[in-house]
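Structure tokens please, single chain.
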Amino acid sequence: MIGYIEGKIIKKEEDRILVLTNQIGYEVLMPAVVMTSLQDKQVGDDVSLYIFYQQTERQPKPVLIGFNLEVEKEFFQYFISVEDIGPLKAAKALTVPVREIATAIEAGEINALTQLKGIGRRTAQKIVATLGGKMGKFALIRPEDRQAQAPVEDFSKQVLDVMIKQLGHRMTDAQQMIEKALKRNSAIKTPEELFEEVYRGEREGK
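Here you go.
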């Protein structure tokens, strides 16, 4: 299952983008609110997204839906638990920030929810009945917290595995090199950047 993607945009359409990572292009469906946050991104720019992945017997073709924040993906999983709201309908409905939708649900604002694309009054009532009292966490998302950050432990573990299994380093030595690299450059966000910093440290240490 794919839960996170980081790479370069190689194609951008109205409701989806094609992301190149490790020589593979992934088509990612984007809720309108997420697509809006990427309006300044161009083909060739880097992008990082948390991914909701779905593949079922009725829908054998995998569907990837992208989010800036892991908490937005978590909200999406709650949202699709409501009767009659599937992933594709939910993705189209997210036309305003998650925090605003969560606030409307908590307040029982049916009219506000009917402003979401594809959400009628009956469905809005189901949303409030199903999710009311569970949305406080999502209503607290800060507006400026738009950019997802790759968990450091995820990509550092990837680098550690490669250094041990493919490059022949001992675990303790590899761990020390990675720790020193992250201390020298706390802005590292990708495995590639971490490899470069480890290499730079080893080269300068000789």
